[in-house]
Design brief:
2 copies of one chain form a homodimer.
Chain A (H helix, E strand, L loop, with lengths): L8 H16 L6 H7 L4 H7 L3 H25 L4 H18 L3 H5 L10 H25 L8 H11 L1 H6 L8 H16 L2
InterPro entries (chains A, B): Homeodomain-like_sf, HTH-type_TetR-like_transc_reg, HTH_TetR, KstR2_TetR_C, Tet_transcr_reg_TetR-rel_C_sf
Keywords (chains A, B): DNA-binding, Repressor, Transcription, Transcription regulation
Protein name (chains A, B): TetR/AcrR family transcriptional regulator
Chain lengths: 193, 193
């Protein structure tokens, strides 16, 4: 049996922070809570990370860059708008299932970033949304998608995967592959003419 | 011009609390924050409400009862599964647009309820979900909906309206009626065979 590699401490800290931010809220989470969650003394935690602001920043920007890379890959592919949206949707669903930190960036905690990071993060989000919107509009123009307000399509699509993080646990009773396939099919059908 | 009726102070307090819980998190919101948000002295706030726990409880149960009433009305109607799901979806979208407190009950803040209220709230949620699931299953059985995992359909449908509260502002550029119609049509198309 291949051995499962233990995630690096830093990754553990980020995952734990993302869960604490969700459960207690960012403001109410202390470095002490975080140290306890990863079984470190507060003093040792500072060897890995200087503040909770730093963790939030890393979580938000890592995820923003992950989605930007996904978008770049999709834009370079010679494929239909439908295939592009499918690839991006699969990225959203897979990310929500595999990485607890992603939900922090997707959802509300990014609001706690300080400037200039807040503006930079918002600008990355706007850019991602705009590129996604252009794919939707191209698909409507080509008749691959039905005519609808592109913002409603876009935000509904982003929102539709939000439950996955709260609810999904592999194998009970659905596998990750089931959820990815069914959720992707659901949204693609909603877009068709 | 008809005068717009000023909402009761209690309603204002609940709306302000719902926004603070979302922005700062429930744990980090103090009665002082809440008093400031509704321009009251902390001492006057206590004439309206005894604790933030009480507000959270009222918000959660009012919304749970609103959705239960909607479900009862829908169940009693002699209509197709498609018409039932449409009526419930419209209730979800309209509620998200009209009432800022609803998002608190929909989303994460209910986790902060104390017992026995937490268990009671979870049981109301489970009951609502189960009744909604039965409508979806009946629709699949009748061939009105395509065959899919009912949980994926259910949670995707609930999640899909979550953006409305964050993003929607009447008339810029979409009206509430536009959003309700388009979002409902989007999800209904996803369910069709």
């Amino acid at each position: 049996m291949p051995q499962i590699r233990k995630p690096e401490k830093k990754e553990q800290i980020k995952e734990a922070a993302a869960r604490l931010f969700r459960d207690k809220g960012y403001s109410a989470t202390s470095m002490r809570d975080l140290a306890e969650a990863v079984s470190l003394k507060a003093s040792s935690l500072y060897n890995h990370i200087s503040s909770k602001e730093e963790i939030l920043r890393e979580i938000c920007f890592e995820n923003a860059h992950r989605f930007r890379s996904g978008m770049e890959e999709v834009e370079q592919a010679q494929s239909t708008a439908m295939a592009k949206v499918e690839a991006l949707l699969r990225l959203h669903v897979r990310t929500a299932m595999e990485d607890a930190t992603s939900v922090t960036a997707f959802n509300d905690e990014w609001r706690h970033l300080n400037e200039p990071f807040l503006s930079e993060f918002k600008s990355l989000r706007r850019d991602y949304e705009q590129r996604f919107r252009l794919i939707l509009l191209a698909g409507m123009e080509e008749g691959e998608f039905r005519q609808m307000d592109p913002n409603i399509a876009l935000y509904t699509l982003f929102s539709s995967v939000r439950w996955v993080y709260d609810w999904f646990q592999p194998g009970r009773p659905l596998t990750a592959a089931n959820v990815e396939d069914e959720l992707t099919a659901f949204i693609l059908q909603a877009l068709r003419p």
